[in-house]
Amino acid sequence: MNKKLKQSIAFATFRLLGFLVVGVLFYILGFIVYNGAGVISWEFLTASPEEGMSAGGIFPAIVGTLCLVAGSVAIAFPVGVMSGIYIHEYLRNKWVARVIRVMTNNLGGIPSIVFGLFGMALFVQAFGFGDSILAGSFTLALLALPLVIRTTEEALKAIPGSYRAGSYALGAGKLQTIFRVTLPVAMPNILTGLILSVGRVSGETAPILFTVAAYFLPRLPSGIFDQVMALPYHLYVIATSGTDIEASRPMAYGTALVLVAIVLVMNLLATATRLRLGKKTKMD
User: Fold this and answer.
1) Is 65 inside a domain boundary?
2) Virtual CA dihedral for 111, 114, 115, 121, nearest 10 degrees?
3) Is residue 262 part of a domain?
């Protein structure tokens, strides 16, 4: 078998696997859309749940999910970016940096249920936040933090050293170089980590189960110390609990469709921002 034939077989295999992955993705999305589209209505999106969540809408769960995603991103993104900057730009001890990277990777591999238990022990009980948006946001931020740190560090590594050398040659200091040169150039790639972290935290159930999620709370939160309903936990409840699970199954599919749509919209907005920043950086 010659090299050209081997290469053709390898490319065909990779192409087949790629189409297979895309096909599975579209099958899952099509299944959710097929079963959940009939439930979607203006009332379903804007009304509060009724009759033990077997009727009404999911508006409080939508608002709660958006609050938790916004809170976790507001915490994880600046902390993760600053941590990545410190590891790459300031930390000169390679052994310490290697230990931090290993621990960060291990933190990213911890099951989410463990984060939920930790968040309950630390934020809910020790810090006295109670079951609240604040406790849930901090817990979800811990999940997103490793991804943001690693993405920031890799984005900074990809910047050519000539950028920093040129900035130093013009008389800029290290901090000024970071915030005026390297960080703006790396920001489009850093936003990739933000996109991935949003996709992860928006669908987590275990962490919010212990820290913020309410079983049935048909009202909107009035502050960061309130409990909220959230789409992942709401989906779990109506799909597994209740007196008539089969009757509430369409609402479960509708809730899943709304959750997927929210994640998709957030990812599209973040991607558009990433592309816009990338074009602006190239123009500059």
Assistant:
1) yes
2) 180
3) yes
